[in-house]
Amino acid sequence: MAQDITYDQAAGGQPEIRKPSVWSALPSFQKSWQGLLAMTILAVLCGLPGIDFPFTLDSLLRYIDAVLPPVYGKGFFVDLLHFNYVVTCLIVGIIVRNVIGVPNSWEPGLTYSAVFMNVGIIMLGSQYMLRDLIKLGPISIVVMAFMVFGGALIFTFLGRYFKLGDAMTGLLAAAFSMCGVSACIAIAPMVKAKSEEVAYAIAVSVTFGLFCLFALPFLGKIAGMSNEAFGLLAAAGVPNSNQVIATGFNFSFEAGKVSGFTNIGRLVLIPAGVLFIYFMTLGKELRSTKISFWEILKEKFPLFVFGFAFVWTLNCLQVWPVPASEAMGNVMEWFFAICFVGLGMTTKLSDLRKAGAKGILIGYVAGSLRIGLCLILLFVFIKMGFFR
Amino acid sequence: MIDDLGKKNTMDDDLQKVMAAAEAKQRRHRVDEYIAMVIAIGTVFILWFLQFVGLY
Fold first, then answer.
1. Backbone angles phi and psi of A137, in degrees to 5
2. Domain range for B45
3. Inter-chain CB pairs, A–B, below 8 Å
4. Is residue A79 part of a domain?
5. Best to test chain A binding among B33, B46, B56 (most A CBs inside 10 Å)
6. CB of B10 within 8 Å of any CB in chain A?
7. Nearest to B36 among A118, A310, A319 (CB)
8. How far apart are the first and last CA of chain A?
9. Binning pLDDT at 50, 70 and 90, where does residue A2 land?
10. Is B46 on the interface with A (CB under 8 A)?
11. Does residue A55 lie in a domain region?
12. A195-223 and A227-237 are packed helices; what angle lies between their axes, rounded to 10 degrees?
């Protein structure tokens, strides 16, 4: 890692290690513009919500549905397969990556999809009022706390049962219980994971999330789940944050709003979750890393939550009148659409091979158990009359 | 003995690589959050302003 030479060092004093600036982690605009432009153009061609642009994939699918005879009395793509902007953006992204191929010059720009997801989540604040927070806030915190710590326990148990090793168990527990790739990388040095174990755990969580993204909305529609219940299920069951949002919006706009909001609860719990997994997975003799709760809190706490709180507070104070908040809802979906194209374009189907049979088995069994656990919890809440 | 030392060095190198990746990811996360806050709050105020001046 590059270390800057300080004045003291140049003057012959003791060398001082200066931490690199956070901005050094960002690829420059010159390197990123091609990927950014590609994501935006593809999102527009897929069809952005709220814009009646005729030359889009969405318009084409609607036209085909109107021209072809109905299947079971419904349009094939839109009504039966529930094709919406989420599905089209993702599928187009996946096809571009895995069939056509992505030039290397696009790669830095594609990493900005996480920025667009954060932008969308902050703007989600304009769609919530105080009553929504009172209604959803306590339930989401309870569900998320239960799923983060309960999920970590499930993975710890299965990891020990299948003799996966402490590092791999910790990685999978972090990836599935918190926010997928980020949590996995964050906990890797603490559990002393090898680089191939990190790649393996990421591959398992990403492929499981991809499976959930398409399968859970079908399950939800068949089970007749309400938007609130499905939004909570998506946030609790899907590993990666952008996959959580995509799964929610794939079900409905309202479910997407709930999953985006509930996901914030999960992100806030990351520092506590990281510590919990560290102490659960590693034996006392292996805990050589000195852990400071405040250091972890400072490093891992998601700061953009304050952005959400700011936009939400102004919305509660009715600073945004109705036409403006509606426009904010549309623009929020545009940012999510670009994020979903980016998500598709960074999804490598070859990761399925990388994950291997044992990893897929354990990851998918434990991931499905977490979803089952979440369904039981939601059922209890529904019976208690918290929501439909 | 030499083999063991070599193996340990490779493991240490690998751990250094993992730590560097985690640190880089953490920095990227933070900068992504800063940029997202600027874009989101900027967009929200632009949309409010456009409505305020009666554009829609």
1. -55, -60
2. 1-56
3. 113
4. no
5. B33
6. no
7. A118
8. 53
9. very low
10. no
11. no
12. 160
DSSP secondary structure of A164-198: --HHHHHHHHHHHHTTHHHHHHHHTTTTT--HHHH
Flag whether pLDDT at A188 surpasses 70.
yes
The domain total for chain B is 1
**Nearest-CB residue to B19 (from A189, A300, A303):** A189
SS3 state of residue A123:
helix
- Phi and psi for A218 in degrees, rounded to 5? -65, -45
Q: What does the alpha-carbon distance between residue A261 and residue A111 come to, in Å, rounded to a whole number? A: 23
Query: Do the Cβ atoms of A290 and A111 come closer than 8 Å?
Result: no
Categorize the per-residue pLDDT at B33 as very low, low, confident or very high, splitting at 50, 70 and 90: very high
Is A280 among the domain residues? Answer: yes
Nearest residue in chain B measured CA to CA from A296 = B26
Neighbours of A353 (CB within 10 A): 11
With a CB cutoff of 8 Å and minimum separation 6, the contacts of A131 are none
The shortest CB-CB distance from B20 to any of A1, A193, A310 is to A1
Range of the domain at A183: 119-333+350-383
Please name the residue that has the structure tokens 């901005």: A23
The token pair at A3 is 């270390």
Quote the tokens at residue A163: 């003799």
Q: How far is B44 from chain A (nearest CA, A)?
A: 7
Residue matched to tokens 């304009």: A126
Burial A233-260, CB ≥16 within 10 A → b, else e: bbbbbbbbbbbbbbbbbbbbebbbbbbb
Cα A176 from Cα A5, distance rounded (Å): 41
Selected residue of A107, A118, A242 to mutate for chain B interface (largest B Cβ count, 10 A):
A118
Q: Which H or E run includes A212?
A: helix A195-223
Which residue would you say has higher pLDDT here, A360 or A43?
A: A43
B4 to chain A, any CB pair closer than 8 A? The answer is no
Copy the structure tokens of residue A190.
């603490």
Answer whether residue A128 is part of any domain: yes
Q: Which of A122, A321, A324 sits opposite B37 (nearest CB)?
A: A122
Contact state of A188 with B22 under an 8 Å Cβ cutoff? yes
Q: Total domain count for chain A?
A: 1
Q: What is the ipTM, given to two decimal places?
A: 0.86
With CA atoms as reference, report the closest residue to A107 among A117, A96, A119: A96
Minimal CA separation from B55 to chain A, in Å: 10
Instruction: Give the Cα separation of A169 and A159 in Å (integer).
Output: 5
Q: Which residue type is seen at A12?
A: G
pLDDT tens digits for A191-233?
888 888 888 888 888 889 989 999 999 899 888 899 999 999 9
